[in-house]
Write a structure and sequence with these properties.
The chain is α/β, with parallel strands linked by helices and 131 residues long. 33% of the residues lie in helices and 21% in strands. Strands 1, 2, 3, 4, 5 and 6 form a 6-stranded mixed beta sheet that branches. The termini are close together. The mean pLDDT is 90.
């Protein structure tokens, strides 16, 4: 963990998304914000994100689907609101996985094939942490 906290990428995607959809979205995040410490997904969407994590040797955090609607997101997709109760699954997942006090580094990005979204959240550094 850096002095700035963990950088956690959350994913949201359509059922027809592929591993390449997620990889491309993650690559966009890296290009825009730099290194990513962990990946995150809603439990119901975990298998594809776990596959990406295995390929890229990075840890995955699962968040409860029921928690998605409790998070205020920067973007507001009508489709996401209807299907998952949140304006952005990627943003909600990233914030939930990063924990209380986390902040998004920006709005979600959309993969080139428009089947996946990803957002990067920064966890709050506990007081007194110098690492």
């Amino acid at each position: 963990m850096t002095a700035q906290g963990l950088r956690i990428a959350g994913f949201g995607f359509r059922s027809e998304a592929t591993l390449e959809s997620l990889a491309q979205a993650q690559d966009q995040l890296i290009d825009q914000y730099g290194a990513i410490d962990k990946l995150a997904a809603a439990r119901s969407m975990l298998p594809l994100v776990e596959e990406l994590a295995r390929l890229r040797d990075i840890e995955v955090i699962a968040v409860a689907d029921a928690e998605l609607s409790t998070v205020t997101t920067l973007t507001h997709s009508e489709q996401s609101l209807h299907a998952r109760g949140t304006g952005s699954v990627a943003e909600a997942v990233a914030l939930l996985a990063a924990g209380p006090g986390a902040t998004l580094l920006g709005p979600r990005i959309i993969s080139a094939d428009r089947k996946a979204t990803a957002a990067l959240a920064l966890s709050e550094v506990p007081e007194g942490t110098t690492e």
